Amino acid sequence: xxWGSFIMPATTFLPFAGPLGSTIALTLGALVMLVIAANYHxxxxxxxxxxxxxxxxxxxxxxxxxxxCAWALWLTYISIIWANATALVLxxxxxIGDVLQFGFHYVLFGYDVYFGEVALTLGGLxxxxxxxxxxxxxxxxxxxxxxxxxxxxxxxxxxxxIMNSNDLENFSPQFSLTNTPAYGIFSIVALSPWAxxxxxxxxxxxxxxxxxxxxxxxxxxxxxxxxxxxxxxMTLLASSATSQxxxxxxxxxxxxxxxxxxxxxxxxxxxxEIFGETGLFFMGLTVLAAIxxxxxxxxxxxxxxxYVTANDNILPSWFAKLNAQNVPGNAILFLVIISVTVxxxxxxxxxxxxxxxxxxxxIVYGYVSACAYIIARQENSLKFKVTGVLxxxxxxxxxxxxxxxxx
Length: 407
Prior knowledge:
2 strands, globular
C-alpha cells in the first residue's frame, strides 16, 4: 500500500460510492481477495518455491501460460514501484510546497518536471534498492516497523476524525450522488485486484520461509484485512471533515482541482483541521512509511520473479546470481537501472502505465485460481474446487469491467 491509499478515497472511492458504499465495497473486495488468497495458499503448499504463479502455470499449463503470467505480474509490480516512487514528489508538493522545484524544468504531457523532484525520486529508488541488496535483515525489520507505524497512525487519525464529527450527519450523503449505490459499490469492488495487489508477494518467498507454508493463508489474510481496514479508515477520514467553504464531502471532492497544497488531499486536510501541524507532520511520515514499505516489498518480490525466470533460462543466468546476503542482487540492480528514467518522464506518463497494467493482477489471479481448480479436481478437494471456480469467475468479471469501456 502506498500513495494510492491516501489519495484514492477522495478521487475514486467517495465520488463513486460514498462513505457507506465504499465501506461495503471494500469489505466485499476483501472477501473476494480472501478467495484468491485461499487459492494461492493451496498452490504454495503444492509448489513451495520462489516462482509463485510462474511455477504453478508452468507445471500445470505449460511455458506459454507461465511466460504470460510472469510478464503480467512483472509489469504490474514494476509499475506500482514507479507509481510510488514518483508519488514522493506529490507528497512534497502537497506538504512543503515548491521547495524541491529547483534546477532544470520542463513540461511533459502537462506535468512539470523539476531537477529537485527528480533527485528525490531517484534517491528513494536507490535507498530502497540498496537496503534490499545489501541489508536484507535490516530491510525486513524496517519494513515491519514502518508497516506497524502507518497502520497505527491510520487508526489514530480515523478515530480522531470520527470523534471530531460528533454526528453521523457529517458523513452524509452516505452514497454517491452521481451513481446508484449498486453501481458505485460494484465499481469499487472491481478495482480489488489493483487495490490489494501485493498480498500474494509472499508466494515468491516460499523458499525462504522459516516456518510452515501452511501459515501462508493466515499471513495473506492478515494483509488483505489490514489493507481493507486502512482503505476504509482513509475513506472515512476524508469524509469526516470538510472545508468551511463546502457543506459536505461531496461538494468538497467535486472541487479538488481548485485546491492547492494539502487542502487538495482531503485526508491531509482533515488531519490538519483535527490535529494541527503536528498531525500533518505525522501524516507526512505515515505516507512516507507506506511508500517505503511498498518499494522495499515490491523490489524484493519482483527480483525473485526475475530470479526464477532466469533459473529457467528464460533470462540470462546473470539475473539468477545470489549475493552474500542470499539475495538476487543483480535482478534488483536491473530493476533500478530500468527505473532511473522514470522521474524524467513525469507523473502523467507513469499514470498511463499504471492504468494499462492494472489488468495484470486480474490475469494472474485468474490463472492461480484455474491452477488451484485443476489440482483440486485431481485431488478431489471440494473446498478448493469451489474457491478455484469462484476465483476464475471473479477474475473474468473484473477483466470485463476493466477492458470494456462503459461496461
